[in-house]
User: Fold this.
Amino acid sequence: MSVRELVVLGTASQVPTRHRNHNGYLLRWDGEGLLFDPGEGTQRQMLRAGVAAHDLHRICVTHFHGDHSLGLAGVIQRINLDRVPHEVTAHYPLSGQRFFDRLRYATAYRETVALTEAPVDADGVLAVRASYTLEARRLSHPVESYGYRLVEPDGRRILPELLAERGIKGPDVGRLQREGSLPGLSLADVSEVRRGQRFAFVMDTRLCDGVYALAEGCDMLVIESTFLDEDRQLALDHGHLTAGQAGAVAKEAGVRHLVLTHFSQRYSEPDEFERQARAAGFEGELTVAHDLVRVPVPKRR
Assistant:
């Protein structure tokens, strides 16, 4: 059975707290695992969440601030220590290559795994797999930062009433699904388009075109909401979003499930983030993330 869920490993921003680890997010997408922004302590959070190095297929770093990348050293070494049998690909801003190199080779260890470096230097498609296309979009932060988006290819949903009209039943249904046609009949004649799922990961950024492009039509949007709305100017000055801004983006983009995260240590009342996102008009599912929570990707429409 395919599994699509977000495993939240950490939700703090610059400074971790007693209850929030630095960033870390694992997206399970069918048989693959994509690890986003492994901050300090990610390897231990993986252990607590029941996530193994063998679960990782891609590592996606939005930018090279420590709370989003200091865990790379431990994660990469663990991948090698456990001799992960498949290729692991790392995406990160090309401008931060020197930081990636330092973290990859922070200490001595034996390399046993094919870790492919695939840095990002422009908007566009990074990878095409059977179950998703991975894209990147430039964000607005004091250092170069990219957000990531997965798009599942559209499929088709068979309509039983149309099958009945054509007298198609039994083994012919399976044959039609596998081969796409029967004599005098195509799959399109008895089905409708089933929109592929969409997931986006948006970290440190001001409002910009990239935020909206990533969020558009998403089934799940994981987005930073470092500040509350009363600190909007502080958010702008430091290249971040507020809870209200994140909610407004999700509303405009038609997001189904909004996941707020990356909270400043200055706030002690997490419910206020949800209240402000709702006040901005977002009416879909909403999760104010906390460490080690698992959030299922919504079922297909």
User: Anything to note?
Assistant: The first helix runs from residue 42 to 49.
